[in-house]
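Dear support,

I submitted the protein below through the web form. The confirmation email said the job was done, but the results page showed an empty box. After a refresh the structure appeared. I'm attaching both so you can tell me whether what I see now is the final result or a partial one.
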Amino acid sequence: MLRPLDWLLGLLSLDIGIDLGTANTLVSIRDRGIVINEPSWVAINKRTRRPLAIGAEAREMVGRTPADIVAIRPLRDGVISEFEITEAMLKYFIDKAHEQMIVPFPRPRVVVGVPSGVTEVEKRAVYDATISAGAREAFLIEEPMAAAIGAGLPIIETRGSMIVDIGGGTTEVAIMSMGGVVVSRSLRVAGDEMDEDIVQYMRNKYNLLIGERMGEQAKI
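What the results page shows now:
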């Protein structure tokens, strides 16, 4: 049974949706749409592992940091590879979304997209990181379903709808019908591999050495 306090907090809470991507993280607020779209990068002190910059600021530091600082992506292939750093990144984005609201809200309810092929352990890591980052409640949704809803596909109808979602770390392919996923496949081959292939092609074909950022820009 829903307690009165839970009902009141739910009424006043900020509802946030997070697309926690390997390459970029998007944050959406209910009735306002996407309010944050930043790279999933964190610059940390190598010795203390303390985050020094997050998001776009950290991305700009790639290749420009002193020896004791490194810029990393705490997710690989769509799943968490650095739990504490991912937690810090989530907290940064949740707090940043809160700052955009004029009226202060209680801790938010957060929905996070996860690849369809992740294990229960990987799902738990995302859930725990979200709660630790400041969410009052956390819910997980498979990325193909979230993408289909966002694209306005008729997933409730009896006929099938197919979606292909190419991210930085994973490619999600799914067929949906009657409000559920009929069949799905999550491939841990996506945009990052395209960037690497472009870098390798330029080196092998033209003997030209370019970085990951240039490879990504050439792809786009």
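Response: this is the final, complete result; the empty box was a page-load delay. The domain at 4-151 is CATH 3.30.420.40 (Nucleotidyltransferase; domain 5).
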